[in-house]
Amino acid sequence: TAIQRADYSAPAWWVDSVDLCFDLDPIKTRVLNKMKLRRNTDLPVQALRLDGEELNLARVLVNGQGSTFKMDGNQLVLSNLPDECELEIFTTTCPSKNTKLMGLYVSNDSFFTQCEAEGFRRITYFLDRPDVMAMYSVTLRADKAKYPVLLSNGNLVDSGDLEGGRHFAKWVDPHKKPCYLFALVAGQLVCREQRITTRAGKDHTLQIYVRSGDLDKTEHAMNSLIHSVAWDEARFGLPLDLERFMIVATSDFNMGAMENKGLNIFNTKYVLASQATATDVDFSNIESVVGHEYFHNWTGNRITCRDWFQLSLKEGLTVFRDQEFSTDLAGTASARAVKRIEDVRVLRTNQFPEDAGPMAHPVRPDSYVEISNFYTVTIYEKGAEVVRMYQTLVGRAGFEKGITLYFERHDGNAVTCDDFAQAIADANPSSVLPSLLPQFKRWYSQAGTPRVSAQGVFDAASQTYTLTFSQHCAATPGQTEKLPFVIPVVLGLLDANGNDLPLQLEGQDEIHTGSQRLVLTEASQSFCFTGVNAEPVPSILRGLSAPVVLAFDYSDAQLLHLLAHDSDPFNRWEAGQRLAVNRATAAINDSSANPAALDAAYIDAMRAVLRHPTLDAAFKELVLTLPSEVYLAEQLTVVDPQRVHTVRQAMREQLAIELKADWETTYAATQETGAYTPDAVSSGKRALCGMALTHLCLAAVAEGNDQWPAIALQRFKNASNMTDRFNALSALVGSGHALAIPALEEFHALFKNEALVLDKWFALQVTAPDVGGNTLPNVKKLMKHSDFSLRNPNRARSVISSYCQANPAGFHRLDAAGYQFWSERVLELDAINPQVAARLARALDRWSKLAEPYRTNARQAIARVAAKSGLSKDTQEVVTRALAD
Ligand code: ARG
Ligand code: ZN
């Protein structure tokens, strides 16, 4: 039942306008849908086939007359329609039983919708595909006391009271849109409102709707929205095209947020923040998600996708835009680099494993069973890297010209990734892109992370340094042979003092100071730099200029040189990571060795970073953070998760003990006194301070000393913001010190009415270090806690996904009980909410890399899930692909 990209055909019918009328009721909502239809005369005459799911169909009228129809599976089929007609469909649904959270559902006594990708068919019969764009008018009717606020897309044109304590509101959206951008909200909500005047001199109203107790937590989201509007206008010339722009928060939501036209619906996690309840990371996530959804208004809504295979057209581009937005707001060069490092960490720890596993798919997939499974880090994050490479190839100004041409050509249409690529290339005729475009587009069609191997040869006689690159991409499901990619490689060469050499390629006049951009197009190719009088240290793939793995046989001395001097902060960080990876993988592979075998050179280098007079705290924190267990596992051919954990934990403890004096100095130096603000500089300080405290508690427990745990407890109690409070609590929990127990209790008592904080409380406990297999019993106990709920996605994820995906040592148990637990929860969730279940199902994606007995046990657990009858398409697709690995 897989859908193939190659099977695309235009719709047989167009829908010009939709007039929807809702009588909202949690048990039985009535939906009257009047559509103006027009046959697509480019195609042979075909019946009209409308999608519908879990709907009760009451009536179908064609031009006001009762009409015959038939059902074909989930489709309502109408034959012999006139070329233009008005179709009226009356259905009912039960929003309160909608636990899938797709279509119209109830959360905390309010109504919400989620239509992307295919939820609109759960509201009414429709041509549920993104290339059918229509004008919408929507009338909402509901009990006035229970649902005082009635919202939909566009502008409010009428409202008033009705009989029986009911009222109505009529909304008209001035823009045509695909049905996946439809939204409605009804409930007891309050709103923060802000009027703005944009550069273009137009007035707009921005609103953020939340439950009444949450209004004081919306200031940061509103500021983020104001910044987003200004940024898109300044950077890309894209203004707000609506009089009214609304954000509504709901605590029951499958994903992060949704860009419905003029009425974005958000998971509360990405709206609500106060210094008492949200961490610096929460503040920064809110800024980027608010930006992301806002930027979709142009990249996604004004220009949308022709079909769902083109999903990265809007998601990759919009992630790129939100990354650029956060980078520009971060300000300093160092803060910009920190943002890039964070984004690359996400790519490497989530997308690279996806690209190497059974769910690997191209940025533009060729087939899918369930589109919800393809809202992936490949579509989003790798898609954003592909967009970033255009900018690297045509330059920032060239990229902006490309975006302008893209809108000139395609505004108001549903288009493809090819259309985007062509616009960027055509806007930059004298750049390298046009001639490389067909090959560049392999980034859309070939899955897998390319591996670029580089070798450098210095020739003293000719004073040249030759870099030879070869690229290779491993086979992925359904793709055995890969052709070479276009890979932009930004690089520099460091001299013995750590300065960038001027770069001149043999036979070329141009001299580059600092970095130069090379472009790889062949399986193997060489570049010869002239005028090099001593062997340099190459700094390759600066800023991660392409989403590839770079293999270069660096010596420790070279890496230490880069860590100390590289002018590119990304590669400076990268050098530290390589030093750590080399040590960790050596210790993991030599099981006879002492796992804590960090040498003095490494420790001294880390000490030098901590003591560095000018490096930012945020950057220091990133350098001192060891590569994650997931990232380390990806560097191995066979993974023993317990060994990986033991080695990394031992390395952390050694850093804790050997740098103790420096952690103490760091802790003292990073105390913040002024008012709380979540800006990059003070967030960085708090992050480094938290890291120091974590290491001091680790060292204390290793040495049987209670001083630092006691300090952490005090800090926990006295903290004036959630970042410091939570960092102190994590330091205690992570060290395994007994003071963690009363602190956890106190934390719960303080925040028992704050759902988002309780999510943190649950997640922290299930990701605590596993002591004698105690995590799993603890997870089971927490699932019986009165605050636990399987139906709320945030809560289910905070306990179950956090355990299965963020605590490898607790999850990968020798007795396979973790896998047993996983399979039971996947099945249990699948009956409630297939999207949440299918995400959890991916926790065992990398089973085939595991050492025995984990490998066999994991496979059996997956097979048990796959054997279950009545599985959702979502979960079925994930486990079927896993078993085929
Ligand atoms: N378009 C949304 C975003 O990226 C995500 C949509 C969620 N889709 C889903 N099938 N749950 O912001
Ligand atoms: Zn998006």
From TrEMBL:
Q: InterPro entries from the entry?
A: Aminopeptidase_N-like_N, Aminopeptidase_N-like_N_sf, PepN_Ig-like_sf, Peptidase_M1, Peptidase_M1_dom, Peptidase_M1_pepN, Peptidase_M1_pepN_C, Peptidase_M1_pepN_C_sf
Listed A to Z, the keywords are: Aminopeptidase, Hydrolase, Metal-binding, Metalloprotease, Protease, Zinc
| GO biological-process terms attached to the record | proteolysis
What GO molecular-function term can you cite, just one?
zinc ion binding
Cofactor(s) the protein requires to work: Zn(2+)
Coiled coil located at which positions? none
> Which stretches make up the Peptidase M1 alanyl aminopeptidase C-terminal domain?
556-884
Aminopeptidase N-like N-terminal domain spans which residues? 82-181
Domain (Peptidase M1 alanyl aminopeptidase Ig-like fold) ranges: 448-552
Looking at the record, the residues that make up the Peptidase M1 membrane alanine aminopeptidase domain are 221-430
Superkingdom per UniProt: Bacteria
Q: What is its EC number?
A: 3.4.11.2
Give the main EC class.
hydrolase
Which transformation does this protein catalyse, written as a reaction?
Answer: Release of an N-terminal amino acid, Xaa-|-Yaa- from a peptide, amide or arylamide. Xaa is preferably Ala, but may be most amino acids including Pro (slow action). When a terminal hydrophobic residue is followed by a prolyl residue, the two may be released as an intact Xaa-Pro dipeptide
Q: Name one Pfam family in it.
A: DUF3458_C
Q: Does the keyword Zinc apply?
A: yes
NCBIfam families, per the entry: pepN_proteo
Described by its record, this protein's role is as follows: Aminopeptidase N is involved in the degradation of intracellular peptides generated by protein breakdown during normal growth as well as in response to nutrient starvation.
- Similarity comment text for this entry: Belongs to the peptidase M1 family.
Name of the protein in its database record: Aminopeptidase N
Organism of origin is: Polaromonas vacuolata
Q: What is the lineage of its organism?
A: Bacteria, Pseudomonadati, Pseudomonadota, Betaproteobacteria, Burkholderiales
Record gene name: pepN
